[in-house]
User: Fold 15262_t:CDS:1 from Acaulospora morrowiae.
Amino acid sequence: KIINIDKKKFTVALSTRPREMSTGKNSPIIRKKLDEDYDYEAERNYTPKKVEHKKAPTKGPTRVIPHPLFHQKTYIEAIEYLADKSNGSIVIRPSSKGFGHIGITWKLYNNIYQHIDVVEKDRDGASVGRRLEVENGRYVYSDLDELIVEYVEQKARMVDELTNHIKFRPSEENLKNFLDMSLNVNSKQSSYGFCLDSEIPGGFCLMFKFKQNSNIEIW
Assistant:
């Protein structure tokens, strides 16, 4: 039984005592006045709406390539995977361009990676196309092993030869300092060297300085 309602404190005092629960024969039933501001009609007609949960978008078909160097990774994940690997390490991966393309990421040097877009032709339901094109069809290979040996590994050997050369420096700033120091030691002899191209992964810059007061030529 409701004993008291305190609207200011939003509290209700209740009692379950038998003598208070029973109104008695002569006890009048006191009906509290309903809240005039409350919409009782709307409450009776209210029907809870069903909440439709949107389904998460499903991923597209997963590409699987039967090759020991294949990994189910994005190009960012491939870089993370190759970070502690030796220079020349390779990851074959699905291409973000979809079917008909294969992505190859390989490590050139510390924190420098090259991504190769391989275009597949003559696939005809095979797991990998029978014609693989690189650099807009400039180089064509019959399978991934041939492409890796003749294209990627050949590039890796050239990079290895250059980065281990006595005239190599990892950055343009290092190379410019090297040229200046060389001319300070021997001002009668011109100085040259090469470094990694910061704008083109896999590219190199050749720098030449004729004399101490000469400008540095860059190719």
